[in-house]
Amino acid sequence: MSTPKRIYTLSSEEAAEAENLTLRIAKEYSGPADEQLLRDLPLLAAELPVGQRRFLRDFALEDELGYCVVRGHNIDDARIGPTPQHWRGRPNPTPEFAEEILLLLHGALLGEPFGWKTQQDARLVHDIFPIKGFETEQMGIGSTDTLTLHTEDAFHPWRADYLLLECLRNPDRVATIVSEPDLRSLDPEHLALLHEPNFLIRPDDSHLAKHNVTQGVDAEFSEIDEMKADDNRVAVLYGSREHPYIRIDPYFMEIPTDPAPRAALQAVSDLLEASCLDVALTPGDVLVINNHRLAHGRQAFQARYDGTDRWLKRVSITTDLRKSHERRASATARLI
Ligand SMILES: NC(=[NH2+])NCCC[C@H](N)C(=O)O
Ligand SMILES: O=C(O)CCC(=O)C(=O)O
Ligand SMILES: [Fe+2]
């Protein structure tokens, strides 16, 4: 097997090609949730530079690395305008529609983009920037506290297979934290316990109704409340014993009362902490997270709130829309 590659750096010609493509597409569709755009994404993605497409396909098929980076896209800092104060109340399409398209095109090479009715008012492409009043929250919109290591939407059976973060702006080089643990180094006894549904996990705060104003999704918020109250016990490791996948968010998990599973959870949490690396994204980077292998977080920072703050775009990708069929309004609907 070939060694998986971590970073693909576009040439300036490739970056210009991708930029022309997204600017053209932005004129042809109404916004990131335009159903026709979502239908057309894989066709349009075929026009991205071939080297980049091959890189992402290798990343997906090898399923070895926890993350990779596509680097060197052009971000039009003047066109996207200042970093907004909040994700609510933005125009549709936004000035950064071309950048949202770029993110969706990357996603289309890996699977199907989807969104949550219970997150960011059911938007498909999320904004990650600091919001006043939320500094100490364990959410993407926080800042002064380290965002602790997590699998994205770890509590949910339909969580993303891939999570994509695109950097629009990051003047202070605030790092995303990545942790790709070598799970084979864990004690066999701990490994066995981690493969069993011994661990209680709760929805994270970004899915709470109080952080959303969407009407008509009461059923979904009730379900989140139930998952919060329920004894939602899951396995932290799954898939092969030799090279397991991981789902974990210690901050939103309960410490088991039984000493054996408690020690196992502690061991894997310690391993995650010991395996951390900083990745400071620069404008034009797309960080592709394999949500079955990587835990991620973010270093603490001081927000500026002057329009120049760090600004990322985020989208969730599934390789199997069918598993959420019961919750989606139609075969092509993307919100669950
Ligand atoms: N350990 C954690 N902070 N977990 C929650 C992660 C943040 C969450 N994904 C958000 O959208 O804001
Ligand atoms: O800001 C980052 O680099 C990561 C944010 C994140 O993990 C999240 O919003 O879930
Ligand atoms: Fe995250």
From TrEMBL:
Keywords, comma-separated and alphabetical: Antibiotic biosynthesis, Iron, Metal-binding, Oxidoreductase
UniProt-listed InterPro entries: Alpha-KG_dependent_hydroxylase, AlphaKG_dependent_hydroxylases, Clavaminate_syn-like, TauD-like_sf, TauD/TfdA-like
Superkingdom to which the source organism belongs: Bacteria
Source organism: Lentzea jiangxiensis
Alphabetized PANTHER family for the sequence: GAMMA-BUTYROBETAINE HYDROXYLASE-RELATED (PTHR10696), TAUD_TFDA-LIKE DOMAIN-CONTAINING PROTEIN (PTHR10696:SF56)
Classification lineage: Bacteria, Bacillati, Actinomycetota, Actinomycetes, Pseudonocardiales
Residue ranges occupied by any TauD/TfdA-like domain in the UniProt entry: 236-315
Cofactor: Fe(2+)
Designated name of the protein: Arginine beta-hydroxylase, Fe(II)/alpha-ketoglutarate-dependent
